[in-house]
Amino acid sequence: MEKQIHFCRKCAWTRKMLEKELLKLQDYIDNIPAEEKVAEEEYERRLLLCDKCKELRGGLCGQCGCYVAVRAVRKTGYCPHIRAKW
Amino acid sequence: MRKVEGLINTKRKLGKINKEIYGHFSEHLGRCIYEGIYVGEDSEIPNTNGMRNDVVEALKNLELPVLRWPGGCFADEYHWMDGIGPKEKRKRMINTHWGGVVEDNSFGTHEFFELCSQIGCEPYINGNVGSGSVREMSEWIEYMTFDGESPMANLRAENGRKEPWKVKYFGVGNENWGCGGNMTPEYYANLYRRYQTYCRNYGNNTLYKIACGPDAGDYAWTDKLMSIIGDKYADAISMHYYTVPGGWEEKGAATQFDEKKYYETIEATLRIEEMIDRHLEIMGKYDPEHKVKLIVDEWGTWFKVEEGTNPGFLYQQNTMRDAMVAALNLNIFNRHCDRIAMANIAQVVNVLQAVILTEGAKIVKTPTYYVFEMYKRHQNSTLVDCYFDVPTETCEGFEIPLVSSSASVNEAGELTITLANTSLSEEIELSTIVVGDYSKVDGTILTGKMDDFNSFEKDDVVKPTVFAGADLADGTLSVKLPPCSIVTLVVC
Questions:
Q1: pLDDT value at B98 more than 70
Q2: Is residue B112 helix, strand or coil?
Q3: Which residues of A touch B359 (CB under 8 A)?
Q4: Does the distance separating the beta carbons of A12 and B45 come in below 8 Å?
Q5: Across the strands, what pairs with B297?
Q6: Which residues in chain A touch residue B179, judged by CB atoms under 8 angstroms apart?
Q7: Is the CB of residue A18 less than 8 Å away from at least one CB of chain B?
Q8: Catalytic hit among B264, B298, B373, B426
Q9: B90: which of B129, B155, B267, B451 is 20 to 30 A away, CA to CA?
């Protein structure tokens, strides 16, 4: 009988792996070309609005599942809320 | 152009395609239940009793037959009493496994039955063996189905529901070889026998009991499980198989992939057929009359999450490649309908190979959605003999059969044929004799580039259109299948 490697969703995501993903997030933001990013002031404005939003949960937007730090940085980004905050 | 010949014999009937093969799966994971389905009664997103109207309408259109809940892994740590009673008093907890989000239990048993009622589907409840008790499981069934005077029926009435619900499908544990308790098959099989003893049939409610079966190609699990439960204690066993091309580290992104990855995905997904055949063969050793069915209650693609989203939410986009995976799997399930009683794609909204994606008030139907729409005519129809002399081609190093098919006849005598051309480069011309009294053919096609997808900005890149590439003359059906295409033909 061949060796079976079990594969389930929960086991696949240990906390350590999650932390590794979070570190990659900053790299990801840093590597977005400057011309695709909004100005620093606009970025801060957006994040402040996200901070005040009740949909923000642990850095995530409850409406789309994105890290707001990523969603807010792109010029093409938009607030997904039915009453868009930015 | 490649020419392929075949024969469809509608006189040779091979079994009923249970509508439940077109089933779905909803878990408290990421944004599947919360935001994807349930937004709460006070949401500005249009809803009925908290369920998104747009999502319910889309699922009704699929004639979604059965919905599995609450998991998945979540099922084996779900304590159903946390999710009943006044919502403001329900337990709030941090879901540490899935990105630290709050689980407020606002979606519980009553809400799930409300959802099923709105969709018009059968509920499939998955009970907790891993961290629950026999009593907890037994009382949940009493709560849901007991009609009359009993502690749980009285509690249900206190919570606003006097009449019992109908529950047919009940799973006793989930992935107990892994997240559901890391059990050995011997240990689980004996636990299963004990737990299911107290899963009672109350009144005229009859449970269809499902034991936790194997992960993918774990034949040892099936063998040991079946040797202990035999043909007396379960109506079905479950099996899970995810299409993860190249393995966990190399599975790649949902939308950015090359032709090699496409063909690797096709090869990976087709492996399910051999697994099904081997599991069924083992099951037959202990159940020669085939009383115990196989249920594939988690299947579908698994790619890297979309950039910038919580990796624990398993949110991925969905392309023509996913549509092809759905088409191939559904044809395989149809062809095994004599022993596959149900299948549930993972998952219905916003998680893994979803048929629907949501973002705030927006909704997108994925290419996979349209495959389920195109295939729904098979539900409860009779599988008939459908053979093609399918060529196999080496594509980027992978051996790929170029055509997938299945055919069924409904009560009105109409023949439905579903076809897929897996090749990215070759048009295929099918020529098949159709045995039966038919004179007219209509078709629908889903096609595009392998990485085409629907987004919130452009939601109609991939959608079905009328197919004019089929012709029926003198009992011979001719079909020109473009590369990377899925076609449904209705012949009458």
A1: no
A2: helix
A3: 63-64, 80
A4: no
A5: none
A6: 8-11
A7: yes
A8: B298
A9: B129
Residue-wise burial string across B46-65, b where 16 or more C-beta atoms lie within 10 A, e elsewhere: ebeebbbebbbebbeebbbb
Q: B451: Cβ–Cβ under 8 A, 6 or more apart, which residues?
A: B255, B256, B257, B319, B320, B321
Q: Cβ contacts (< 8 Å) between A83 and chain B: which residues? A: 44
Instruction: Return d(Cα B73, Cα A11) in angstroms, integer.
Output: 9
| Predicted TM-score of the model (pTM) | 0.95
- Between CA A59 and CA B362 the distance in angstroms is 21
Residue B442 burial (CB count, 10 A): 14
Which B residues in the span 468-487 are in contact with A, Cβ-Cβ below 8 Å?
A: none
Q: How far apart are CA B207 and CA B167, in angstroms?
A: 7
Find the farthest-apart pair of alpha carbons in chain A and give their distance in angstroms, rounded.
61
Furthest C-alpha separation in chain B: 69
Measured from the Cβ of residue B117, the count of other Cβ atoms closer than 10 Å reads: 13
The answer to whether the CB of B342 falls within 8 A of the CB of B20 is yes
Residue among B73, B175, B311 whose CB faces A18 most closely: B311
User: Any idea which of A55-64, B9-18, B312-321, B368-377 has the lowest mean pLDDT?
Assistant: A55-64
The token pair at B81 is 């009493």
| Residue B284 tokens, joined | 């037959």
Decide if B298 is catalytic: yes
First-to-final CA distance of chain A? 58
The verdict on A12 touching B (C-beta cutoff 8 Å) is yes
Residue type, B22: Y
A13 touching B (Cβ < 8 Å) = yes
Residues of A in contact with B29 (CB under 8 A): 9
| Average pLDDT value for residue range B191-212 | 98
The per-residue pLDDT for range B429-454, each reduced to its tens digit, is 999 999 999 999 999 999 999 999 99
Three-state DSSP state, B123? strand
Would you call A83 and B97 a contact, using CB atoms and an 8 Å cutoff? no
User: What CA dihedral angle connects B369, B101, A71 and B354, to 10 degrees?
Assistant: -10
Quick: pLDDT tens for B343-402.
999 999 999 999 999 999 999 999 999 999 999 999 999 999 999 999 999 999 999 999
Q: How far apart are CA B334 and CA B329, in angstroms?
A: 9
* Residue B175 is among the residues annotated as catalytic for this protein: yes
Nearest to A4 among B215, B248, B310 (CB): B215
